[in-house]
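Bench notes, afternoon.
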Amino acid sequence: MNSFTFWSPTKVIFGEGMAVQAGNEVKAFGGTKALVLYGGGSVVKSGLLDQVTASLKAEGIEFFSVGGVQPNPLLEFALQVIEDFKDQNIDFVLAVGGGSTIDTAKAVATGLASDEHPLWDYFCRKVLPKTALPVGAVLTIAAAGSETSDSAVVTNQAQGMKRGFNTPLNRPQFAIMDPTLTYSLPPFQIACGIVDILMHALDRYFAPDAENAITDELSEAIMRMVIKYGRLAIDNPTDYKARSEIMWAGSLTHNGIMGLGQTVDFSIHQLGSPLSAKYDTAHGASLAATWAAWARYVYHVDVARFAKYARTIWAVTDENDEAAASAGIDATEAYFRAIGMPITLTEAVGVQVQDDIDILTDICTYHGMRSIGTFKVLDASDIKAIYQAAL
């Protein structure tokens, strides 16, 4: 096991009806003037936004509310919010929504705290921020894990690029997690969340220096539970246990604990991001559409690792590693199909993308400036081949 430092300070308040604690938590972490960010009308129609803002009022916290965060959140939106509120002495940013809203809150929190560098420079990793306002989250979607992670991802619409950066400053001070807030999600959105959670585990599981016993056991157990309860959550939207397990798994797969003692790969997230940037493809759908093509392209690097995955996650019994590895990839792809996810680029995007393969490859490599992955390092020719195989 490699050396590591693990620090995950987010306070989690988990359970039904906990949204009313938002004001108390903002106050506890020093907030006196909050900016509340949310996405579409669902948090308004459900009454959740009113509950949250009422809790702020009860604690004497002044606040402003801004809606309109969209899936695959935009840098341009965050910049506009920063411009609108830079002179309002905001000292806390509260996200009410899913990963897109939370990531936007992180971007805004960074931008409001300092104008030393353009906000996009942080996402391009030219420099790391020295300070950021504290962020809190009231989670409504189990998927991205942003409520406890140190990462933030946005899309620069003008450049057609989706990028992210990691810093301890991105970790929310608290996360309120009520599984009942996910009951109204449509099946497609639930499935996208399930895939995202699984991929956060898989992108860490397939690493060149994996085989750490405790890390592996945690990862394998969570993946099995996500697969099991993911099906139940789709079949019965108000299954509290299923929604609880999925919501907690979402946080655990992205708060850092599952990659301890080893490197991480994250090729699939890198392959999927150009789909979201160019076509506004749902994040989970972009991952499901590319995973099997990636797996079949790279599994020969460590056939035994893929065979272990097949046996521990999918109960594959074939004793031949090559056959087991192939069966595990097939089983994963079949699961994505079973929960209504696309398994090809064409299905994910909704149009033929053959003519755009070079464009997607260019976006993925940051215009030829990088390779991706660690399990197998992938250059532009590899990335293009995977996109071709995923058509």
